[in-house]
C-alpha cells in the first residue's frame, strides 16, 4: 500500500532587509510603504498560502561605523504592519518575529492576543533571542546574555506568555445591561508567575483570542534552539533547504519530540527558500546567474569578506584577488548587529579555505562571495520547481517552504500564477482555505487553554 502524499505548506517572507533582495532591478519597489506590504500579502492570499512572515530589526546594522547598505530605508515595526495587513486580508496567517531578550511577557502577550482578535485567529509569533550587546544598547537593560541564558530566558518568557494567554477560560466577564454592572469571575485573567527570569502577578486584560494562543515559531539552529523548538514550538523556521541537509535536520528535530510527549505532526519544519523562474530550465539557470551578480555588487562582496577578515577592505579591488593578510582576531568586530559574523567561528580556517577555492577556480573576491554565498534553492521552469518542491516534501526534507523572492513586492506573483496551480493539480496543495485560523491552515490543534488555566490555578 503506497504512502499517502503529504500536503505542502507554503508561506512568503517579505524580504525587506536581507541579502536576497535586488535593489537595482527596475521592478523593485519600496520596502517601507504600506502598499508594498499589501501587494505582497494579497498575492500570498490569492495563492492560498498559509501565512506571511515578517522579520524584525531592533537596530540599524553598522559596518565600519556606518549604517549597513541594506538598512538605509529603515526597519518598520512588525506589529504595526501585521495589524494593518489584518484589515486587507481575510485568511492569510500573519507571522512576526518578536525578541524575547529585550521585551517583557505581558506586553508581547497582549500585543499578540490583540493581533489574534483583529485577524480572527491568524497570528503567529516567531520567538527569537538577541545575541549581541550592540543591539542591547537600544534597551533599558543594555548588554546581552550568554547563549545558555538567552534560551533559559526565552523558555520562561514563552511559558509565562502562555500562562497569560491561558488565564482567560472563556467569557468570564459578562455585562448586565439592565443594571449597568458587570458580573465577573474573580479568576478571569488572573495570573501569578514566580521564576528566575520573571516575577509578575496581576490580571491579563485581553480575553481569550480565537486561536487560544498564537502559533509559535522558532528559528534557532543550535542544539539549544532545536531542543527549544521540540519542547515548545508549533513550527521551526529552518535554514536547511537542500535535500540531504534538510532530511538530516528534519530527522534530528522530529526525533526530539517524543521526550516531550509530542507527535511528529505537532511540529512543522519550514525552511526558507529562494527561487528563480523562467519558461525553460536553461533560461532559469542563466537568469539565476544574473540575479546572483545583482545580489552581490563589488561593494557588497568586500563587506561580506570583512565579516571574516574583521578589517577595512575598502581599498581592495572586488574583481581582484583575496587579501594576503590574515583576519584580525581582536575582540571588537568591524560589523555590528550582523548575524553573519557568528557564522565564521574560525576566521583563519575560513580564510585559508577561501584562498584555496579562489586560487583553484581563478575567482576574484566578488566571484568567491557569489559562489560560496546563498544560492537560489529552486531554479527552473514552473513545472521543474513544482516537482522539486513536492519531491523534497514527500522525501521528508521539509513540511513546506517559506519563499523569499528577490524582488519586492511583485516577486511572488509569478510563483502564485505559474507554480501553485501545478501543485494544486498534483493534489498536494489546497485550492481553497478549509478553515479560518492559521492553526487550521497548518493542521495544528487549538490548545486546551481552559484546561491549562484550571491546571495553573490548582
From TrEMBL:
Pfam families: Bac_luciferase (PF00296). Gene3D superfamilies: Luciferase-like domain (3.20.20.30). Its EC number is 1.14.-.-. Keywords: Flavoprotein, FMN, Monooxygenase, Oxidoreductase. InterPro entries: Diverse_substr_monoxygenases, Luciferase-like_dom, Luciferase-like_sf, NTA_MOA. SUPFAM superfamilies: Bacterial luciferase-like. The keyword Flavoprotein applies. GO terms for molecular function: monooxygenase activity. The keyword Flavoprotein applies. Residues 24-395 form the Luciferase-like domain. Belongs to the NtaA/SnaA/DszA monooxygenase family. This is NtaA/DmoA family FMN-dependent monooxygenase.
Amino acid at each position: 500500500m503506497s504512502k499517502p502524499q503529504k500536503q505542502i505548506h507554503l508561506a512568503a517572507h517579505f524580504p525587506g532587509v536581507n541579502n536576497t533582495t535586488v535593489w537595482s532591478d527596475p521592478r523593485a519597489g519600496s520596502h517601507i510603504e504600506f502598499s508594498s506590504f499589501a501587494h505582497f500579502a494579497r498575492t500570498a492570499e490569492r495563492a492560498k498560502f498559509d501565512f506571511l512572515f515578517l522579520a524584525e530589526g531592533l537596530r540599524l546594522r553598522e559596518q565600519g561605523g556606518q549604517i549597513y547598505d541594506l538598512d538605509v530605508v529603515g526597519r518598520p515595526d512588525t506589529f504595526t504592519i501585521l495589524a494593518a495587513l489584518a484589515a486587507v486580508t481575510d485568511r492569510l496567517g500573519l507571522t512576526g518575529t518578536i525578541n524575547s531578550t529585550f521585551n517583557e511577557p505581558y506586553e508581547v502577550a497582549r500585543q499578540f492576543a490583540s493581533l489574534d482578535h483583529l485577524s480572527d485567529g491568524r497570528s503567529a509569533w516567531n520567538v527569537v533571542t538577541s545575541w549581541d550587546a550592540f543591539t542591547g544598547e537600544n534597551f533599558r537593560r543594555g548588554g546581552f546574555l550568554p547563549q545558555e541564558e538567552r534560551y533559559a530566558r526565552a523558555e520562561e518568557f514563552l511559558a509565562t506568555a502562555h500562562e497569560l494567554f491561558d488565564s482567560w477560560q472563556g467569557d468570564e466577564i459578562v455585562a448586565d445591561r439592565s443594571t449597568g454592572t458587570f458580573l465577573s469571575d474573580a479568576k478571569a485573567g488572573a495570573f501569578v508567575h514566580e521564576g528566575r527570569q520573571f516575577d509578575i502577578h496581576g490580571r491579563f486584560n485581553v480575553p481569550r483570542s480565537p486561536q487560544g494562543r498564537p502559533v509559535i515559531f522558532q528559528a534557532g539552529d543550535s542544539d539549544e534552539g532545536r531542543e527549544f523548538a521540540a519542547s515548545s514550538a508549533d513550527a521551526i523556521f529552518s535554514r536547511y533547504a537542500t535535500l540531504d541537509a534538510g532530511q538530516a535536520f528534519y530527522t534530528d528535530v522530529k526525533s526530539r519530540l517524543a521526550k516531550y510527549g509530542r507527535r511528529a505532526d505537532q511540529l512543522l519544519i519550514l525552511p526558507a527558500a529562494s527561487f528563480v523562474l523562467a519558461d525553460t530550465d536553461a533560461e532559469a539557470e542563466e537568469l539565476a546567474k544574473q540575479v546572483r551578480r545583482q545580489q552581490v555588487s563589488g561593494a557588497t562582496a568586500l563587506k561580506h569578506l570583512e565579516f571574516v577578515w574583521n578589517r577595512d577592505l575598502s581599498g581592495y579591488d572586488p574583481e581582484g584577488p583575496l587579501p594576503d593578510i590574515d583576519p584580525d582576531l581582536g575582540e571588537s568586530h568591524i560589523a555590528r548587529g550582523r548575524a553573519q559574523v557568528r557564522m565564521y567561528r574560525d576566521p583563519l580556517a575560513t580564510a585559508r579555505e577561501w584562498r584555496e577555492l579562489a586560487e583553484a577556480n581563478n575567482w576574484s573576491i566578488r566571484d568567491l562571495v557569489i559562489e560560496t554565498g546563498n544560492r537560489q534553492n529552486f531554479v527552473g521552469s514552473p513545472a521543474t520547481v513544482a516537482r522539486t518542491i513536492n519531491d523534497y516534501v514527500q522525501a521528508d526534507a521539509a513540511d513546506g517552504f517559506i519563499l523569499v523572492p528577490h524582488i519586492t513586492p511583485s516577486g511572488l506573483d509569478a510563483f502564485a500564477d505559474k507554480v501553485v496551480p501545478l501543485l494544486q493539480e498534483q493534489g498536494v496543495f489546497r485550492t481553497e482555505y478549509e478553515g479560518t485560523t492559521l492553526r487550521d491552515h497548518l493542521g495544528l490543534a487549538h490548545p486546551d487553554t481552559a484546561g491549562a488555566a484550571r491546571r495553573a490555578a490548582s
